[in-house]
C-alpha cells in the first residue's frame, strides 16, 4: 500500500505457494547464494561453482532477472550478474 516505505533493495514475492516455489526453486536459490557468497566474475564461473551446465544456469538466471532479482552486466564477450535486491519478502 505504501511503496514509499519499501527500500529499493527489497523485493516482494506474492502468489500461491506453488508459484513461489516455482520461482524460487532450490536450484535458483543455490544460484542466488553462490552469487552473494562467491561473487563469480562470469556466468561460466558461476556454473562451475554450482556444478551445473551453463545452459541450465543461464535459463535460471533469466527467470531470476525477469522477476527483478538480478541484472546482467556485459564485460566484453562475457556476462556477469549483479544482485539487484538485498532482501526478499514473502507475505504469508
List keywords for this structure.
single chain; 92 residues; alpha+beta; two-stranded parallel ribbon; two-stranded antiparallel ribbon; 4 helices; 4 strands; 45% helix; globular
Describe, in plain words, how this protein is organized in 3D.
The mean pLDDT is 87. The relative contact order is 0.22. The two termini are 16 Å apart. The protein has 92 residues and is α+β, with helices and mostly antiparallel strands. Strands 1-4 form a two-stranded parallel sheet. It has a two-stranded antiparallel sheet with strand order 2-3. The protein contains 4 helices and 4 strands; from the N terminus they run βααααβββ.
Name the average pLDDT.
87
| Rg over C-alpha atoms, rounded to the nearest angstrom | 14 Å
**Beta-strand proportion:** 15-25%
Structural class: alpha+beta
Give the H and E element order: EHHHHEEE
Number of helices: 4
pLDDT < 50 stretches? none
What share of residues is helical? 40-55%
> How are the strands of the biggest sheet laid out side by side?
1-4
Distance between the termini: 16 Å
- Give a count of the beta strands, DSSP E runs of length 2 or more: 4
Oligomer: single chain
Largest sheet, described in full?
A: 2 strands, parallel
